[in-house]
Prior knowledge:
The chain is of the alpha/beta class. The protein has a domain of 167 residues: Rossmann fold, CATH 3.40.50. Helix content is 33%, strand content 25%. It is built from twelve helices and twelve strands. A hairpin with a 2-residue loop joins strand 11 and strand 12. Helix 5 packs across helix 7. The protein is globular and about 70 Å long. The two termini are 28 Å apart.
Amino acid sequence: MGEEILKVKDLSVNFYIEDRVIPAVDGVSFSLQKGETLGLVGESGCGKSVTALSIIGLLQTPPARIVKGEIIFRGENLLDKSYEEMRRIRGKDISMIFQEPMTSLNPVFTIGRQISEVIMQHQNVSKKEALDRTIEMLKLVRIPLPENVVRQYPHQLSGGMRQRVMIAIALACRPGLLIADEPTTALDVTVEAQILELINELKDKLNSSIIIISHDLAVVSEIADKVAVMYSGRIVEYADVHTIFNKPKHPYTRGLLEAVPDIDMNRQQRLKEIRGVVPRPDEIREGCRFKTRCDCAGEVCMDKEPPFYQVGKNLGRCWNYA
């Protein structure tokens, strides 16, 4: 076992909207070793991004509030940190790549200024040194002619180049933990492969740990060491990437994998699908959260929510494990 850089313990996040309490994340726990990559997967609305924003301290409060749990980063609970302490940690020790680079980059500032600001915020360097580091970071993410790109604005770059700039910003201060929220969304397949290869290469070069958030199982299979499958605010299965993809145990994980097209499929063959829709967080009552969509649901699933069971290398919430 390597050095544990992050441990999330029983994290619960509620949204308070008017007179309603909406549980977005409920009892999420996982850990991450130094140099390791964790994939958080699941359908939209399952709590992946809320979990990530809780770690980096960017949840909008109100309406959100962390009601329970601990986020231990390098031995310290981030939930005990003040706003100013989190500002110093964010960008320097923990960074995030957001899913839409065009809206994440400021359209009125040059690329050079946006990367340099991050470096100057956390490092005691001059503008000249920050600019030199900026050009170095652009070279690191394989952007051609970085001396020219530092003077350009986001709209002058392609989607793939903007995403590389976002990676350069996130890695500018060599953070120990990088959170990538759908880093290849809206990119074509060729550029997606390049971005994934780049993230993997930089992780090894900088010895950073990564949490990659995605609903694309192919992306996760390429880059992750461990996978946590989320459904309706909870982790329902947790194992190493090979076990998840080759020996999935939870009905939801199996359903996700069976819904992925196979290159050997007959053209007339219909893709399997998970029936029904994800329940709204404020609709959840008792029993297993997946019960209305599960072909294996029994009587106990209707009344009691399953605890975590371990079957082989898989940890998961399912009464069938019992």
